[in-house]
Automatic annotation (TrEMBL), chain A:
GO terms for cellular component: cytosol. This is 3-oxoacyl-(Acyl-carrier-protein) synthase. GO terms for molecular function: 3-oxoacyl-[acyl-carrier-protein] synthase activity. It comes from Flavobacterium fluvii. Residues 46-219 form the Beta-ketoacyl synthase-like N-terminal domain. The lineage of its organism: Bacteria, Pseudomonadati, Bacteroidota, Flavobacteriia, Flavobacteriales.
UniProtKB/TrEMBL annotation, chain B:
It comes from Flavobacterium fluvii. SUPFAM superfamilies: Thiolase-like. The keyword Transferase applies. This is 3-oxoacyl-[acyl-carrier-protein] synthase-1. It comes from the Bacteria. GO terms for biological process: fatty acid biosynthetic process. The lineage of its organism: Bacteria, Pseudomonadati, Bacteroidota, Flavobacteriia, Flavobacteriales. Residues 2-398 form the Ketosynthase family 3 (KS3) domain. CDD domains: KAS_I_II.
Automatic annotation (TrEMBL), chain C:
Residues 1-83 form the Carrier domain. Pfam families: PP-binding. Keywords: Phosphopantetheine, Phosphoprotein. Transmembrane segments: none annotated. This is Acyl carrier protein. It comes from Flavobacterium fluvii.
Length: 354, 400, 85
């Protein structure tokens, strides 16, 4: 069966993740409940005529994908597969508000068009004039992993050699106010918002666009091989460990083979037990990393997690800022990622050095 | 050689019927489901017609026996109804007995609830439960929970081709051995959001949509849900299951032309059909019926027609029809609805009529089948195209 | 008429987010679509709404826009002839 390699990365996030090596400029913000992305200079990547109607998510997606392609040194791809939990929600908001406020009159199409979930993938295709396979997944916190799994299958089916895969989500004011109301986002004035050992419900929200160029061949820019991806809709806390071992076993591995486990801790006291059970039991002696203190929580934050995993393998270090337990290994070869959101949409992703 | 992935169950609820059987009766009796809108209050109700499921949300809640504190969107409710029917026809009693997945599709998700309560959430705490039902994935989770399914659950949203892509992914997951069984399809309820969105694009008809007619004036929106059960040949053999038809071909390509419009020559559509034929290992002349996307917008039918001419030749195009005059355009669900109709065409050896057609288009000599036609149907090709140039083609084949 | 043309230029820049284009760069007879300003069919739909909202002119067929929105000159002439507000 053909293998899948990560050959290029592009990341627009709350941190400075472009023009940097690996989180050396990262800063933890424990005072805010909403973290905005550090924006690149869009006009370096997108023409003024094209940019004027683009949503934030579209712009970030285009820039992140261009960075990934540049790093992988590819100019065309055989498939574009994206994941997004909410799509370009800012435009959805704009259109919906206009409908209500203007009583369905004098509406214009631009924000409606942008609100379609596949708009990022479509605009990347338009920019690249890429007529290939183009899909978008929208399923909460496994939106990105669905795209990743599809891409891996495409390479295994020998239907594609070079694939652009990415996760994109954006914050929008009214939606975040609703998420605060519903308790998904932490309350104000309860900071500092620490992700580990948190005592309050909800999470600090972020946004971002993280893209990967996947190829069937190893080359000088290769970060890691993607060994496997598994998606499960629902698990009880006490099922996580057995599911995790079954996943490793299916790949001929055991816990001791894992050099770092990257966990999706988001500081929600209600659901972090899903990570704790792995952190405090099977993987007690394994180096552990966490990242949502840097990226914030969002539906496709796990794409940022995979970016972290790939960088660990490439740089052979787990920066202190993401280390859970300060354990080290002489070499970082095999990395397991686990993520879930509110007890649903669980994913296990396995990558290794090659 | 196998003719593709087995379909062992289907379920549907649309403007022309609440079951597969009811839909079939409407299809063969030209019973259009396009009417004035009743369940949504909109200022456009006098000037547009829609394909609406004539059941209120309260009726749907009662039918599904949901608890009073449920937070189901209409999209999730009609999706659950269709998925349950599909499971029943496939005679699945223990859903997690095999590696089973659900690949859903939606474009609006829970928008119907979001738009109904948008500014009221801060006023009424009883509404807050609906905030989480906005996103697309919520619909799939609700359906999976109602079916008791634990496994791979995901959702595709590529506008109006969404469900075709969910059927395609489901077939690939079985083909690759990742899953033994997968429930695939899509659901979209009518919403003010989409009604107004399509209105801004000026592609809504003020009358009844007339696909491939020279005087076509645009589409009627509709709402519907349909799901199909795909199973591996191992299960089919072991449990001696009845195979309704097979998913034999699939293809997706991007038009890469415009954010909403299709290209003049239908490049994306051409590539999608070409790919699906290749996967099915069929020649164009082996296709007996095309269920076209046929939305009746000036742009779609011209682009799709040109792509059909390129694949089949102007004089050799097989019988084709759009069933959207009956159901309306049901967006992310459309390809699942039309997958059910394609299977019905195969099972009953019929070509469904393309209603409301009068005048051939000037650009080419393609005339849809306008009356019910009985003939042997081995292979049906079904097209679905969406915004963002997303073009998908599925091919369904008789099992034996 | 000159004032109307100036007004249209301002509105086009605003409605279509043409922030990089200056008022004086748009000539009255420049093509707005295609090679000129580079506007496309979505812009045309935006302009149709502007006609309705600001001048009370309702177009039912988007194809009509092709002729009306040829240039600032043609737009101004059409609005002058047909405006309801």
């Amino acid at each position: 069966m053909r293998k899948t390699y990560i050959n290029g990365l592009g990341c627009i996030s709350v941190q400075e993740t472009f023009d940097t090596i690996f989180l050396e400029k990262a800063e933890i913000n424990e005072n805010d409940t909403i973290l905005p992305v550090k924006t690149p200079v869009y006009k370096d990547f997108i023409s003024p005529v094209a940019i004027r109607r683009m949503a934030k998510g579209v712009k970030n997606g285009i820039v992140a994908s261009a960075m990934a392609m540049k790093e992988a040194n590819v100019s065309t791809v055989d498939a574009i597969i994206t994941g997004t939990g909410m799509g370009c929600i800012e435009d959805s908001e704009k259109f919906l508000k206009a409908i209500i406020d203007n009583k369905e009159e004098f509406l214009t199409p631009t924000s409606f068009i942008q609100s379609t979930h596949n708009t990022v993938g479509a605009q990347i295709a338009l920019g690249l004039q890429c007529k290939a396979y183009n899909l978008t997944y929208v399923n909460g916190s496994i939106s990105f992993e669905s795209a990743l799994l599809d891409a891996k299958m495409k390479i295994e089916e020998e239907e594609a050699n070079i694939i652009l895969v990415g996760g994109i989500d954006e914050n929008a004011d009214y939606t975040t106010s609703l998420f605060k109301l519903a308790g998904f986002i932490k309350r104000e004035n309860e900071g500092p918002y620490k992700v580990l050992n948190a005592t309050t419900k909800g999470a600090v929200y972020g946004e971002g666009a993280t893209f990967f160029v996947l190829e069937n061949e190893k080359k000088s820019t290769t970060y890691a091989e993607i060994l496997d991806v598994e998606i499960i809709n629902k698990l009880d806390v006490n099922e996580v460990e057995s599911k995790c071992s079954a996943f490793l076993e299916a790949n001929g591995l055991q816990v001791s083979d894992i050099d770092t486990i990257v966990l999706g801790f988001n500081g929600d006291v209600e659901f972090d037990p899903y990570y704790k059970i792995l952190s405090e039991n099977s993987f007690k002696n394994t180096p552990q990393a966490f990242y949502k203190q840097l990226s914030g929580e969002y539906n496709t934050a796990s794409a940022f997690g995979l970016w972290v995993g790939a960088k660990i393998i490439k740089t052979q270090e787990v920066p202190e800022i993401i280390s859970v337990n300060n354990l080290e290994k002489p070499a970082y070869k095999t990395i397991l990622l686990y993520n879930q959101y509110k007890g649903i949409d669980h994913s296990f992703t396995l990558i290794s050095k090659c | 050689m196998s003719r593709g992935i087995a379909i062992t169950g289907m379920g549907i609820i649309s403007a022309i019927g609440n079951t597969v059987e009811e839909n079939y009766v409407s299809l063969v009796n030209n019973k259009m489901g396009i009417t004035t809108i009743e369940n949504i209050s909109t200022v456009h109700s006098g000037e547009i017609k829609v394909g609406e499921i004539k059941k209120t949300n309260q009726q749907l809640v009662a039918e599904l026996e949901l608890s009073p504190d449920n937070n189901f969107s209409r999209t999730a409710m009609i999706g659950t109804i269709a998925a349950k029917q599909a499971i029943q026809e496939a005679q699945i009693s223990s859903i997690n007995e095999y590696k089973t997945g659900l690949i859903s599709a939606t474009s609006v998700g829970g928008m119907d609830m979001t738009e109904a309560h948008y500014y009221d959430y801060f006023e009424d705490e009883n509404l807050v439960k609906y905030i989480s039902c906005h996103e697309g994935g919520d619909v799939a989770h609700k359906i999976a929970d109602e079916l008791g399914l634990k496994g791979m659950v995901t959702t595709i949203s590529t506008a109006c081709s969404s469900a075709a892509n969910s059927i395609m992914l489901g077939a690939r997951l079985i083909q690759s051995g990742k899953l033994d069984r997968v429930i695939v399809g899509g659901t979209d309820a009518l919403a003010k959001f989409t009604i107004n969105g399509f209105k801004t694009l000026m592609i809504l008809s003020d009358g009844y949509n007339s696909p491939f007619d020279d005087n076509r004036k645009g589409l009627n929106l509709g709402e519907a849900a349909a799901y199909l059960v795909l199973e591996s040949d191992e299960i089919v053999k072991k449990e001696n299951k009845k195979v309704l038809a097979r998913v034999s071909g699939y293809g997706n390509a991007n038009d890469a032309f415009h954010q909403t419009a299709s290209s003049e020559n239908g490049d994306g559509a051409f590539l999608a059909m070409e790919k699906a034929l290749k996967v099915a290992n069929l020649k164009p002349e082996q296709i007996d019926y095309i269920n076209v996307h046929g939305t009746a917008t000036p742009n779609n039918d011209l682009s799709e027609g040109r792509a059909i001419v390129r694949i089949f030749g102007e004089e050799k195009a097989p019988d084709f029809s759009s069933t959207k005059p009956l159901t309306g355009h049901t967006l992310a669900a459309a390809a699942a609805i039309e997958a059910v109709y394609s299977v019905l065409a195969i099972q009953n050896n019929v070509v469904f009529p393309n209603l409301n057609f009068q005048t051939p288009m000037q650009e080419f000599n393609l005339i849809p089948q306008t009356t019910l036609k009985h003939k042997n149907i081995e292979h049906v090709l079904s097209n679905s195209f969406g915004f963002g140039g997303n073009c998908s083609t599925l091919i369904f084949s008789k099992s034996e | 008429m000159e004032a109307l043309k100036q007004e249209l230029k301002e509105k086009i820049i605003d409605v279509l987010n043409l922030e990089d284009i200056k008022l004086e760069e748009i000539n009255d007879n420049d093509a707005l679509f295609g090679d000129g300003l580079g506007l496309d069919s979505i812009d045309a739909l935006e302009l149709i709404v502007m006609l309705d909202k600001d001048y009370g002119i309702k177009l039912v067929d988007p194809k009509e826009g092709k002729v009306i929105f040829k240039s600032i000159e043609t737009m101004a002439a059409y609005i002058k002839e047909n405006r309801a507000k």
